[in-house]
Amino acid sequence: MINVVGLGYIGLPTALMFASHGVEVIGTDYNKSLVDTLKAGKTTFEEDGLDELFRAAVEKGIRFSDEYVSTDMYIVAVPTPYDKASKKVDAGFVAKAVERIMEVCPRGATVVVESTVSPGTIDKYVRPAVEAKGFAIGEDIHLAHAPERIIPGNMVYELKHNSRTIGADSREIGEKVKALYSSFCDGEIVLTDIRTAEMTKVVENTYRDINIAFANELAKICRSDNMDVYEIIRIANKHPRVNILSPGPGVGGHCISVDPWFLVGDYPGLANIILSARKINDSMPDFVLERIHTIMKENKITDVGRVGLYGLTYKENVDDIRESPALQMLESMDRHLCGGQIKVYDPYVARDIVLNQYHNLDAFLQDVDLVVLLVGHDEIKENMDKLQGKVILDTRHICFLDGTYRL
Ligand code: SAJ
């Protein structure tokens, strides 16, 4: 039996995947209302294939609880935010979860940390949490790190097919954890030590952040000299060794916009490209705001209330708004005392989280002259004809109506 601790965006699908492949699972979360929702047979966020996976796991007997249980295998998938002041990982949730596990686990148990952590975090925070309870690591308690790699929007597929990394103190424990993940993972599972696994995970997301920052910087250069960045990237990418990602309104989500800060926080003075990339990506919401002002002037739109933002989530076809570029833009507008008037709509965000938020595409479009496309949800791609006659600023390169403005 395994106890999956933390039933959020990573813990829940992982727990369901184990259970649906025949592993006995108890999923634990300290959020009682989340546990109650799952017990009532409902999932807690939208994700392709998640409901089907949930049903399969329930059929196989997965259980949910707000208590930690005594077993010999734990998977920890709790949040690891970064401390905004120090730019370092906040390992508080992981350390707390491990402390709680130590209160209930038997000798010989293995604790696998799935949460993304910066290199050295397990040495610094997890090992002491184990030793503080009088356990000897490697004898009484075994540790491993199995960072996830799944992409929101395609999580269920990627859980099964992606390769994974497992870091452990010994080959024997690495093999044991690998055997467990092999119950559902068809991809290659690479064994290494814990520190290498920690660093590799952060490096993967940092690589993507830097690539996007390069695309965003190119967008700014091309805008300054009237060149088409999308055409340039399209052609450059035909080179067999070039693969530039797409410019956009900024980098959101809880991974790519967060993990590179761990390296900046831990290695100040060394993480230079990484810091520049973060700054470029963080500057994009303000760059979009400047574009909005220019386009309003050009089209003699004087009332911010006639401008509408399409999309609040951090990317297409997900309901996650964490670190979303749209929210960063709205915050920036508030600082410049022009917030609170612009209209906003996102089909994936049902509850009201900002002022002037609409819940119907037609009503939203009726009330605006300038539409700013911030997220490329399928909904808008399938309804592009409804934008005819509007002034459009497309930050995602999804609209090909005549006269569309771009980044
Ligand atoms: N974005 C662009 N241009 C692009 C691609 C993305 O502006 O060409 C933006 C998106 O709109 C979004 C942000 O970047 O705001 C991040 O989105 P994403 O789809 O690139 O990645 P995430 O954050 O959803 O998931 C990433 C993935 N990491 C990598 O691809 C290296 C995923 O595999 C990880 O498991 C996940 O982070 C994680 O949890 O760490």
Give a verbal description of the structure.
This protein has 14 helices and 16 strands. By secondary structure, it is an alpha/beta fold. 41% of the residues lie in helices and 14% in strands. It is globular, with a radius of gyration of 23 Å. The chain has helices spanning 11-20, 32-39, 50-59, 92-104, 121-131, 155-161, 171-181, 194-224, 229-236, 259-266, 272-298, 325-335, 361-366, 378-381; strands at residues 2-5, 25-28, 63-65, 73-76, 82-83, 88-89, 109-113, 141-145, 164-168, 189-192, 307-310, 343-345, 357-358, 370-373, 391-394, 405-406. Bound molecules: ligand SAJ. The site of ligand SAJ has 20 residues, from helix 8. Ligand SAJ is lined by residues 116, 148-152, 204-205, 208, 212, 245-246, 248, 251-253, 255-256, 314-315.
| Major sheet details | 8 strands, mixed
Strand order of the largest sheet: 3-2-1-4-7-8-9-10
Q: What percent of the residues sit in helical stretches (DSSP H or I)? A: 40-55%
* Percentage of β-strand residues: 5-15%
How many distinct helices?
14
Q: How many beta-strand segments?
A: 16
Please give a handful of descriptors for the protein shown:
single chain, about 400 residues, alpha/beta, eight-stranded mixed beta sheet, six-stranded parallel beta sheet, binds ligand SAJ
